[in-house]
Amino acid sequence: MEDCIFCKIINGDFGTEFVYENDDAVVFKDINPKADTHLLVVPRIHVESLNELNDEALLGRLMMTVKEAANKAGLKSYRTVINTGKEAGQEVFHMHIHILSGDIRL
Ligand code: 5GP
Ligand code: ZN
């Protein structure tokens, strides 16, 4: 989607380094980390939020991606967060899963 910052990152427009990627998603560091390690798992398809993501299989694979990315980053203990909707704190309307580990300031 044209005006979506995460679509632009996925396209490589900003040269963002992916700490992990597969056919379904890319994983990169949050620009404003709220933990010692703060990663974002972002599906390659543009979907506004969890409410619009109705592909059960993709949802399952995204959770597998969380584990793969955490494993690659050497994280054994971590928190996952999905903000859905403005009132819940969602700021970027391209669905994503936060991975937070270490000193979590959230
Ligand atoms: P939300 O509040 O929507 O669940 O989370 C959006 C997250 O994206 C925030 O933690 C914010 O710091 C992060 N973010 C926003 N813009 C960028 C960006 O351009 N690059 C990266 N790496 N993270 C971003
Ligand atoms: Zn997008």
Quickly give the CATH architecture: 2-Layer Sandwich
- Radius of gyration (CA) equals 13 Å
- Cα distance spanning the termini: 29 Å
Read across the widest sheet, the strand sequence of neighbours is 1-2-3-5-4
Shape descriptor: globular
What CATH calls the topology is HIT family, subunit A
CATH homologous superfamily descriptor: HIT-like
Uncertain residue segments:
none
Identify the bound ligands.
guanosine-5'-monophosphate, zinc ion
| CATH secondary-structure class | Alpha Beta
What's the tally of helices? 2
Q: Count structural domains.
A: 1
Give the helix/strand class.
alpha+beta
Percentage beta strand: 15-25%
* Mean pLDDT across residues: 97
- Number of strand elements: 5
Largest sheet descriptor: 5 strands, antiparallel
Binned, the helix content reads 10-25%
Provide the succession of SSEs: HEEEHEE
Tell me about this structure.
By secondary structure, this protein is an alpha+beta fold. The protein has one domain (5-104): 2-Layer Sandwich (HIT family, subunit A). 23% of the residues lie in helices and 21% in strands. β2 (25-29) and β3 form a beta hairpin. The chain starts with a helix and ends in a 5-residue tail after the last strand. The model has no long low-confidence stretch (mean pLDDT 97). The site of guanosine-5'-monophosphate has 12 residues, from β2.
